[in-house]
């Protein structure tokens, strides 16, 4: 299959935003830490963050990778501590496994806030766990950074004032897919259920318009996907988009190939996990494309910015500890760095001040760039995305 020329040369905001970030960290706040909700912990030397992650269950394909990234970054930051006011605070990270169950994630969020007195929360790999966690975080007025992709996590904004997300917006991903498939007159879509899949469905419909010839929703994780996949394959599209997180993405592409569909396949970022390139999945996914943050390409010795150097250091530590770096964007790494930066800039671990400084952060992280504003709480900037192709069980960037 010929690789498309996708040199998306354009004037991007990314470099401008990062270059200007130092001048845009000035948020209007009072100086009295007692004015905002949550513990002020004036005498504490810890920045306490709670994480509820999918370490078991259907979301574990991504959850385990995010836990690894989080532990590496917390250890790195704790080597010198986080300067907050007159103190250098150590990050105290409290980990919980929600088992990919929304009700468990909500319970853990409640306990982390009420019993552990966390200053901020991270978690929710799946849309469903995030949506339950954010209800608790918003009610208790605790900053929460979601690791899920559904756009509804941060909207409507008046009801999500303490909520942020890092994954790319569905509309940005779908727009790149439309560019990639510009020469294909008929496109099929296979998407997962729930808020995640619905966001993808809406975005793809908007981006492709009349070119979308067939669509089908996958059954719950672990179910037989053959019937849902065959519905799209039988429409004989020129390409198929699979909008589903691992392991559903691997099951879908296997079923597509089993249905004798040999044409182009495009994954959304949720497919980019080790599971998708493991065993029989790797053969089925060969030559498929994926839209994903460009950090997936790894590191280069020519990288010279502070963000590049941080990324290189992170990847080096990850390889040292786990043997290989592939198949995901380390959103948890960026989440803990964003919280630490907000506490540093606000000179306080007060929950309200962390929230105010979070929504004025413009920064480039390990996974990509973020441009938070009072009217926008996520996700990753569109120019952080790139196109990759599966080549010999590896994700290779397409230029």
From TrEMBL:
The keyword Cell membrane does not apply. InterPro entries: BCAA_transport, Leu-bd, Peripla_BP_I. It holds the Pfam family Peripla_BP_6. Keywords: Signal. SUPFAM superfamilies: Periplasmic binding protein-like I. Residues 49-391 form the Leucine-binding protein domain. Transmembrane segments: none annotated. Belongs to the leucine-binding protein family. This is Branched-chain amino acid ABC transporter.
């Amino acid at each position: 299959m010929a690789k498309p020329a996708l040199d998306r040369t354009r004037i991007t905001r990314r470099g401008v935003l990062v270059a200007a970030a130092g001048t845009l960290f000035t948020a209007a706040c009072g100086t009295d830490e007692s004015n905002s909700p949550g513990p002020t912990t004036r005498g504490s030397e810890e920045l306490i963050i709670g994480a509820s992650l999918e370490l078991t269950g259907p979301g574990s394909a991504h959850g385990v990778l995010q836990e690894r990234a989080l532990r590496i970054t917390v250890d790195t930051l704790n080597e010198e501590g986080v300067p907050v006011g007159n103190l250098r605070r150590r990050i105290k990270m409290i980990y919980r496994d929600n088992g990919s169950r929304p009700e468990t994630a909500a319970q853990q969020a409640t306990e982390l806030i009420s019993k552990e007195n966390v200053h901020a929360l991270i978690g929710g790999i799946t849309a469903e766990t995030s949506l339950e966690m954010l209800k608790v975080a918003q009610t208790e007025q605790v900053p929460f950074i979601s690791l899920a992709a559904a756009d509804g996590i941060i909207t409507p904004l008046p009801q999500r004032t303490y909520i942020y997300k890092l994954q790319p917006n569905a509309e940005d991903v779908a727009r790149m897919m439309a560019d990639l498939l510009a020469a294909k007159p008929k496109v099929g879509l296979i998407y997962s259920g729930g808020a995640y899949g619905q966001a993808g469905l809406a975005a793809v419909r908007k981006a492709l318009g009349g070119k979308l010839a067939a669509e089908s929703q996958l059954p719950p994780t672990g179910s037989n996907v053959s019937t849902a996949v065959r519905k799209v394959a039988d429409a004989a599209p020129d390409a198929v988009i699979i909008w589903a997180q691992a392991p559903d993405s691997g099951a879908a592409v296997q079923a597509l190939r089993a249905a004798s569909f040999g044409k182009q396949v495009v994954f959304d970022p949720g497919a980019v996990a080790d599971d998708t390139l493991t065993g029989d999945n790797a053969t089925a996914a060969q030559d498929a494309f994926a839209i994903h943050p460009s950090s997936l390409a790894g590191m280069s010795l020519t990288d010279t910015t502070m963000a590049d150097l941080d990324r290189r250091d992170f990847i080096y530590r990850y390889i040292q500890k786990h043997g290989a770096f592939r198949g995901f964007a380390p959103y948890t790494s960026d989440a803990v760095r964003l919280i630490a930066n907000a506490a540093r800039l606000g000179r306080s671990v007060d929950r309200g001040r962390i929230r105010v400084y979070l929504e004025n952060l413009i920064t480039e992280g390990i996974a990509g760039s973020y441009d938070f504003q009072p009217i926008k709480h996520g996700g990753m900037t569109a120019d952080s995305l790139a196109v990759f192709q599966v080549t010999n069980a590896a994700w290779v960037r397409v230029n």
